[in-house]
Please model this.
Amino acid sequence: MLKILLIEDNKTYQKAIEKFISKDIIFVKFEIIETYKELKNIDISEFDIAICEYILPDTKKDEHIEYLLNQNINIIVLTKYHDKSIREKYIDLVLDYIYKDDVNTFRYLTQLVKRYNKNKKKNVLIVDDSKIIRDKISQYLRLFNLEVLEAENGKEAKALLELSDNVSLIITDIIMPVMNGFDLIKSIRKEKSFEELPILGISGLNDNIETIKILKYGANDLIKKPVLKEELLIRVGNLLNLYDFINQYKQKSEIDSLTKAHNRNILESKIDSLFHIYDKKTIAMLDIDYFKKINDTYGHQIGDEVLKYFAKHIKENIRKNDFLVRYGGEEFLIFMPNTTKEEAYVVLHKIKNTLKSVDGIKFTFSSGIADEGDTLAEMIKIADERLYTAKKEGRNKIVFK
Ligand code: GH3
Ligand code: MG
Ligand code: MG
Model:
């Protein structure tokens, strides 16, 4: 739930802001006040962000904004005045200032708040050899509700990326010691595409042709030094919107909604290419025994519960790099990179021996394991034949020869 403190004495603005934002964010709660006096009686710590008019009926100027800043809350300032001094005073302290012009004001404000809300717990990696610039950018990103990781050069950035797989965006300088931005971008793009890991290049180069190389090597976007906060946050917002949009869509198309395992689309979109990267890999096919009988005896809903538990149990026993795929109704596939079939057998054996009953209903599964085959399809076929053998030989068995 996003809790917004709206400090605005104009009723038309109050209504419009609440309406626009509530239309786009489902879990949002507004507290609306109109004066500095009311503000002083409120517990600010309850709110995630304050949207605040520059001058209130009971303030001479902006003393209420000073008051808010002292309470450490992120602020968006609304103002009628196109006045550069307002920008200069607040640019480093508040998230943004927005001119009250026309309906576009509400659109911009809504986009900003929506992005702010989604930024929570998202990590951005800043790569720059200048601590001053890293600090400045970090400060801006934190105002935008983002978490920040820092690296001093490309090599450090690569090492950090190896450790952490939840970086949503990289912001990188170009000229750095040890490993420069060009090489960092090229190296990341060998593994991750534009939407898997967006990159924003920051260039201090005077040469425009050199600067364009940042984009040619695979950055999504670039800005030039000195970094303007407004430009930085708008571009960061755009890239994170792209990232979220594509990943939501991908999730929907690659995740089975019942079991949260991958669905078969992942075989073509990802596993097939991984198959050729790894020399050593194993596939296991698993199929629940007499599942039809569970459905027939206890009902389809209980059958669903068994499927959910089965997928969860498998996931708890495989590694982070393994893939669990719902291959058919009650048939699952596990793709295990860097694993021999003997090693896979140990894992399957553990899955089998620790399988619990669901609502008192005991069940078993059969499995076929293979690490032979030159293509993904061949390896699946061999594993499937062994699964069939396991069924024929009485079920509740793992066959790997
Ligand atoms: P075997 O031991 O030979 O594998 O027998 P089985 O009964 O497990 O296999 P069969 O292929 O005959 O039946 C599978 C059943 O799984 C039939 C189908 O209705 C059921 N099923 C498929 N998808 C779902 C699902 O999403 N939910 C539920 N509850 N049942 C499903
Ligand atoms: Mg079955
Ligand atoms: Mg089956």
